[in-house]
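Q: Focus on the shape:
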Amino acid sequence: MTEKEKVIVIASTNQRKIREFKEMLEPKGYAIKTFADLQTLPETEETGTTFRENAILKAQAVTDQLHIEAIADDSGLEIDAFDRAPGIYSARYLGKDTPYDYKNKVILDRLKGNTNRSCRYVCAIAFTRPDAEPEVFQDTAEGMIAEVPSGSNGFGYDPIVFYPPLGKTMAEMSDTEKNQISHRGKALAKLEKWLNEKR
């Protein structure tokens, strides 16, 4: 593998996601680049209808422009009582700049008295390379919408996503606990397995 091939772009501006990718890929000899390092790259519009499609769109845009490997993920929360909304629109639900405290309050208010509180986090990670079909690794973390928010360690919808096997919300978990059971942690594990086997 040449030095050029060791460079990989993480197509994200989310610092927590970037950190997770770095922790996995840097020990494998990859030099991680992000949008902050590549200011000429425009942010890709998420026009896909699934997590998989949006992840591919974001990673492929980088590969097509720079001719190097790229990784992007698309993730979100599906609430069964809302016909799996907000889904791919999770980050834009009720407005992109709306605080998650407010988003979580709206969800809890809408679910008052509803016995169907099942939900899941979904994550699709796309790995793209020049002259190759994208590889996509997807997984979920099944949970329930809590009655009240709890915990401060997570972000986004974590305070209201309760994980029954551990008896706590995602925001109450340690980073180690969350990485073992989270949608992104499990999708990352699939990517890591593929890299170990194929590269």
Observations:
- The domain at 3-198 is CATH 3.90.950.10 (Maf protein).
- Residues 155 and 185 are 15 Å apart (CA to CA).
- Helices lie at 3-6, 15-25, 51-66, 100-110, 175-181, 183-198.
- Confidence is low (pLDDT under 50) at residues 1-5.
